[in-house]
Amino acid sequence: MSRGPLLFKDIDTPGLAGLETYRGLGGYEALAATLGGRSPGECIEIVKASGLRGRGGAGFPAGLKWSFVPKNSPRPKYIVCNADESEPGTFKDRELMVLNPHLLVEGMILAGYAIGSNQGYIYFRGEFAYVQKIMDRAIAEARSAGLLGESVLGTPFQFQLHTHLGAGAYICGEETALLSSLEGFRGQPRLKPPFPAVEGLYASPTVVNNVETLMNVPHILKHGAQWYRQWGTEKSAGTKVLSVSGPVKRPGNYEIPLGLPLRTLIESPEYCGGMRDGLEVKGVIPGGSSVPVLPASLLDTGLDYESMNAAGTFLGSGGVIVIDDQTCMVDALWNLLRFYAHESCGKCTPCREGTYWMVQILERIEQGGGTERDIDLLGDIADNILGKSFCALGDAAAMPVQGMLKHFRAEFEYHVKHKRCLVNRRRQSVLEVVA
Amino acid sequence: MNHAPIMPLEAPGTREWPEHVLAEVAGAISRYPVKRSAVLPLLWIAQRTWGWLPPAALSLVARTLELDEPFVFGVATFYTMFNLKPVGRHHLQVCMTLSCSLMGADRLFKHLEHRLGIGHGETTPDGRFTLRRVECLAACGGGPCMQVDLDYHENLDEAKVDALLETLE
C-alpha cells in the first residue's frame, strides 16, 4: 500500500535506493526533459508557480529564493542542501534520504541548473554519518551513469556534487551558520543582509534548500505547477511530510496534503491511530520544538502555513510533538529549554544568557521553589530574547516559553502555589537523572 | 557548545597521518575550493584513526591545512561530537530531548547508570563503555533512542538495552 501521495508514494519499493530501480519508476526523467528543452529561467518560473515553500521550517517560497541569485555574477554559484535536520521533533529528512537518495541527487542537479550553479554540497548533521554513506553511494552511481560530472547526460551542463558531515551543533541548521561550518569555521551565524543568495558560501551567490524542498523539485518539473497544486491549499500548495512523536499509538513520518486537520493526523487510523491507552492529548507542538504549543482545544486547526499562523503558531519543520495529559508542562518546557541553553552558540547575549536563566527559573519552579514573580520573569526574559538575538535560535527558545505561558499558565501557577506538579508521570526519573 | 574541553598533556607535532588514510585526506581536501573547508572532514578522519582528538592530532590537522593551531582548537571545541579526551570502545549516547523523554529516556538513562556503574561523561574502568546524555538525534518517532558509535537504536527499553550491551565487546 502506498504510504503517501507524492514523496512517499513509491518510497517502500524494495531497492529504490539503487539507480536502476529509481530509474525504473521514472527517476531522472525530469532531468532529461529539463536539460533537453527548458531554460533555467523557465524552471524557476515553474517552481514559483507551483507554490512550493521551504520545507525546513521558514516556509519561504522556493522559486522566489532561487530568483534572488544574481544572473551576471562573475563568481561561481553554489547550491547547498540543508540535511542538518536538527529541529527536535523532526526526523523526516533522514527517512527520505535513506529510502530515496537519488530523488535528492536529481533535485540538487535540477536546482543547480535553475540557478546556474555547477557545484553542490549536502550538509549532514554529524550523527548522520550512515546517511552520508548512503548518499555517497547514490552520488557515485549517478556519476558513473553520466548524471553528474563534466557533462550531465551528454549536455554542456556540468555539475559536481559532494557531501559534508557536521559534528554536532543544532545551530548549523540555521543557513548562515551552516555556511560558516561548511567553510571550516565554528558554526556561528552571520548577519543578514547580505543574504546567501547574494553572498553565501565563499562570499558567492548560494541557495540553501532543505532536503524535502529539493525532493519536490523533480516531481514539479516533470508534471508541472498545476499538477502539484492538486494537493494543499491556495497559499500552502502540495504535500508535507510530518514527523509525529510522543505517546501516540503509531508515531512516525506521514505525508499529508497541506491543510489536513491536526486532529485527523493524530486520531485517524490512517495516520497515528490516537493516543496510547489511558492517555489523552494535552497539547501539541506542531512544527518542531521551536514553535508555540497548541492546547487540545485547537486540534481542529489545519496543518498548513496560514491556519497555523492564525492559531498563533507555525507549521515549521513539521515535527509534531504530542504531549499527553499525564505530563507536566513545566517539566516539558524545562526539558526544551535545556536543549536551547545547550545549543546556543554563544555569539550574542540575549540568547546565551537568556536561555541559561530560563533553565534556572524553570528548574526552581519544577523543584517547588518558584514564586509567582518567577512566572512573570520567565515571560519577561522570553520577550527580551525574541527578535533581539542575532539569528533565529533566540526566537526558537523564546516562542515555546510564550506558547506555554499563554495556554498553560494555570499549570505554572499551580506549581508555584502547591510546590508540586499538577500531574507528572515522569517526575521521579527526570529529577533523579537531570537535577 | 562543547562547554568543558579537558585536554590531557601531549606534545604537539608528534603525530602523522598513517599510510592508509592519506588518500582519504587528499580526497577530502580536493572537494573544496578553499582548504580550510576540509577541517571537519580531517577532524573526523583523525578521530576515527585515534578514537579521540589528542592535541597532536589537532596540530596535525592544522599543519595539513595550513591553519593556525588555535583556530583548529576553536573549531574542535565548538562541536559536541569531537572527543577531546579518550572515550571507551563503545560510546553510548542517550537522547534526552522532549520526544524521547516522553517515551522514557530518563528512566532508561538511569538504568544504564546503575548497570554500568558510571554517570554522564564517564567511562567504565575496563574501557568498554562511555555513557553520555545527548540532545535530539532526529529519531523522535522511535524514542527512546540511543546512538551507539555510529548506529542508531530506537524504541528501546531496559530489556532491549541489556540485550544490546551484551553484543558490544
Describe this structure in words.
The complex is a heterodimer of chains A (435) and B (169). Chain A is α/β, with parallel strands linked by helices. In chain A, a hairpin with an 8-residue loop joins β7 (281-285) and β8. In chain A, α15 packs antiparallel against α16. Chain A contains 17 helices and 9 strands. Chain A has a 5-stranded mixed β-sheet, with helices on one face. A 4-stranded parallel β-sheet of chain A has the order 3-2-1-4, sandwiched between helices. In chain A, 44% of the residues lie in helices and 11% in strands. The mean pLDDT of chain A is 96. Chain B has 169 residues and is of the alpha+beta class. Chain B folds into 2 domains: 19-78, Orthogonal Bundle (Arc Repressor Mutant, subunit A); 90-168, Glutaredoxin. Chain B has 7 helices and 5 strands, in the order ααααβααββββα. Chain B has helices spanning 22-30, 39-50, 55-65, 69-78, 98-102, 105-116, 158-166; strands spanning 90-95, 122-123, 129-134, 146-148, 151-153. In chain B, α2 (39-50) packs antiparallel against α3 (55-65) and α3 packs across α4. Chain B is elongated. The chains are: A alpha/beta (435), B alpha+beta (169). Chains A and B meet through β3, β5, β9, α13 and α17 of A and α2, α4, α5 and α6 of B.
What's the layout of helices and strands?
The complex is a heterodimer of chains A (435) and B (169).
Chain A: H1 19-24, H2 29-37, H3 40-50, H4 62-67, E1 78-83, H5 92-99, H6 101-115, E2 119-124, H7 129-144, E3 160-165, H8 175-182, E4 206-210, H9 211-223, H10 225-228, E5 239-245, E6 252-257, H11 262-267, E7 281-285, E8 294-295, H12 305-310, E9 319-324, H13 329-343, H14 349-366, H15 372-385, H16 392-418, H17 427-434
Parallel strand pairs in A: 1-2, 1-4, 2-3, 5-9
Antiparallel strand pairs in A: 5-6, 7-8, 7-9
Chain B: H1 22-30, H2 39-50, H3 55-65, H4 69-78, E1 90-95, H5 98-102, H6 105-116, E2 122-123, E3 129-134, E4 146-148, E5 151-153, H7 158-166
Helix pairs in contact in B: 2-3, 3-4
